[in-house]
């Protein structure tokens, strides 16, 4: 009995057990992140049905029409997406970024499955395998995610953000961003996909840290400890706004220049990797874990990346086609004439932060 008790206590302290290891805040963040994935994944299907319905009796969005603004179904999809993004924002206030951010890949599964059921867009067998890999990777990360550290004021978050290690990371990010914007984008922006995506991913890692800080401030304020009187809260708010606007600008440029099916997996990989790195540096997520748990989380992350890549790579394949037949994905319109839409990864493309790209309607 004593051995069992000590084992349970050790598992709880290490964060590796589902029952003892996950704190109440981690569970709340997990539920919010899963809800966010469902709402955002479903919103793309509802919006696309609204686009098709509006295009049947007006000018299609793919050729510059705005008749979808009069379509209730499209607005239902937008409201669903906003609900999902709000849930995602709240998830960062309760759980570490290393848990919340990778779960954005689950919206791919929701969208792919609903597209197969509601839009009759056939999901290839390799796409199903990609979905399975995303589920396995997400489950692995959830079961081994670190505990959310206890923070009692936004000033404490500011202290973490102003430590030398994170200041060094932020300086590198800002320097790299300015170099990309002023040196490489004018010359290579229209030909090299990594230029636009690099800016979005670098800035995105800072935006997630600021969103998490702002979320913590709001959570504490709603619990009775007013954080709005601290100037740090408003400074984090300014950083969030600036980062989101920057992400929106360059992500839309990337989506307008390159195929969504190419932009989405690359952006998801870079954005999630840099976000996890920033969280590890600022919030010291891995300080509360042993090497085995860290290695397991990284394996889960690589599994998600593999599933995401496989799902995007095969999403336009049709069973029975010769494997050597080239599949070309048009940039602006699909074979029905409607605007091309990538399977969603959460992002700032719609004006709300966090998670990876989607095509703008």
Automatic annotation (TrEMBL):
What range does the record give for the signal peptide?
none
Function text? Acts as a Mg(2+) transporter. Can also transport other divalent cations such as Fe(2+), Sr(2+), Ba(2+), Mn(2+) and Co(2+) but to a much less extent than Mg(2+).
Q: Which family does it belong to?
A: Belongs to the NIPA (TC 2.A.7) family.
- GO-annotated cellular components: early endosome; plasma membrane
Q: What is the lineage of its organism?
A: Eukaryota, Viridiplantae, Streptophyta, Embryophyta, Tracheophyta
Question: Species name for this entry?
Answer: Zizania palustris
The listed locations are: Cell membrane; Early endosome; Membrane
Query: What membrane topology is given?
Result: Multi-pass membrane protein
Please describe the quaternary structure of this protein: Homodimer.
According to UniProt, the name of this protein is Probable magnesium transporter
MF terms in GO = magnesium ion transmembrane transporter activity
